[in-house]
C-alpha cells in the first residue's frame, strides 16, 4: 500500500507518464483499512478521473459515504465521484463476477481497451524481493532505496523504447517487402 504525500511532493519530478512508476513511498499498512488508498486516490482525482484498482468494485462502492470523513480540503464533490471511471485491470477482472466484468472492464471504456492496466503489478513483481532488504531499514533509508529502484525501473523502461522501435520498424519493413513481393509475382 502507499503512504500519502502532498501533491507537490508527488509531482515534483513532473507528471507521471504512461507506465512510469510514481513512487509515493510504499510501506506497511493495515490491510483492513482503506485510509491510505483513499488518500492516494484523492491525490489522483485532483487531476485524473479514471482509476484502476484490483478491487475497485468493492473499494468504490462506499466511497461517497466515506467522503464526509475526509478533512474538508480533501473532499471531492459527488459530481466528480460520479463522473470518475473505475476500472479493474484485465488480468484481475476475470476472477470477479459477471456484474463486475461488465461495469469495471477497460474493454468497455472508450480509449482503454488496448491497455491491460497491469503496470503496477509488474512494478510490484520487481520491487517485492527488495522488501527483504528494506524491512530492517529506517523509514528514510527505505524510502530512498525504493525511490532508487523506481528510478532504475523507469530508466530501463525508457531506454528499451528505442530497441522496441527498431524491432517494430524492422517488422514493418519485412511485412512491406512481403506485400511488394507478393504483388510482383
Alpha carbon gap, first and last residue? 60 Å
The largest β sheet comes out as:
2 strands, parallel
How would you state the average pLDDT, rounded?
76
Outline, from the CA principal axes?
A: extended
| Tally of individual helices | 10
**Estimated helix fraction:** 40-55%
Q: What portion of the residues fall into strands of 2 or more residues? A: under 5%
3D architecture notes:
The longest helix is centred in the last third of the chain and has 46 residues, at 139-184. The chain has helices at residues 7-10, 35-45, 56-59, 63-66, 78-83, 90-93, 98-104, 119-127, 131-134, 139-184, and strands at residues 50-52, 85-87. Strands 1-2 form a two-stranded parallel ribbon. The protein is built from 10 helices and 2 strands. Mean pLDDT is 76; it is low at 1-18 and 23-30. The chain is mainly alpha-helical. The radius of gyration is 20 Å and the shape is extended.
Keywords, separated by commas or semicolons:
185 residues, mainly alpha, two-stranded parallel sheet
Q: Helix and strand layout, with pairings?
A:
Elements: H1 7-10, H2 35-45, E1 50-52, H3 56-59, H4 63-66, H5 78-83, E2 85-87, H6 90-93, H7 98-104, H8 119-127, H9 131-134, H10 139-184
Parallel strand pairs: 1-2
Amino acid at each position: 500500500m502507499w503512504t500519502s504525500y502532498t501533491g507537490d511532493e508527488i509531482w515534483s519530478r513532473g507528471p507521471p507518464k504512461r507506465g512510469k512508476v510514481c513512487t509515493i513511498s510504499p510501506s506497511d499498512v493495515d490491510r483492513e483499512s482503506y485510509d491510505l488508498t483513499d488518500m492516494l486516490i484523492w491525490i489522483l482525482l485532483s487531476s485524473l478521473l479514471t482509476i484502476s484498482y484490483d478491487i475497485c468494485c468493492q473499494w468504490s462502492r462506499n466511497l461517497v459515504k466515506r467522503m464526509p470523513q475526509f478533512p474538508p480540503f480533501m473532499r471531492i464533490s459527488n459530481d466528480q465521484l460520479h463522473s470518475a471511471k473505475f476500472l479493474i485491470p484485465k488480468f484481475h477482472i476475470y476472477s470477479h463476477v459477471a456484474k463486475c466484468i461488465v461495469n469495471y472492464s477497460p474493454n468497455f471504456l472508450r480509449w482503454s481497451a488496448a491497455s491491460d492496466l497491469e503496470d503496477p503489478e509488474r512494478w510490484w513483481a520487481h520491487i517485492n524481493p527488495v522488501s527483504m532488504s528494506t524491512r530492517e531499514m529506517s523509514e528514510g533509508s527505505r524510502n530512498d532505496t525504493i525511490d532508487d529502484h523506481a528510478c532504475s525501473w523507469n530508466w530501463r523502461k525508457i531506454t528499451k523504447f528505442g530497441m522496441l522501435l527498431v524491432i517494430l520498424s524492422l517488422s514493418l519493413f519485412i511485412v512491406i517487402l512481403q506485400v511488394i513481393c507478393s504483388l510482383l509475382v
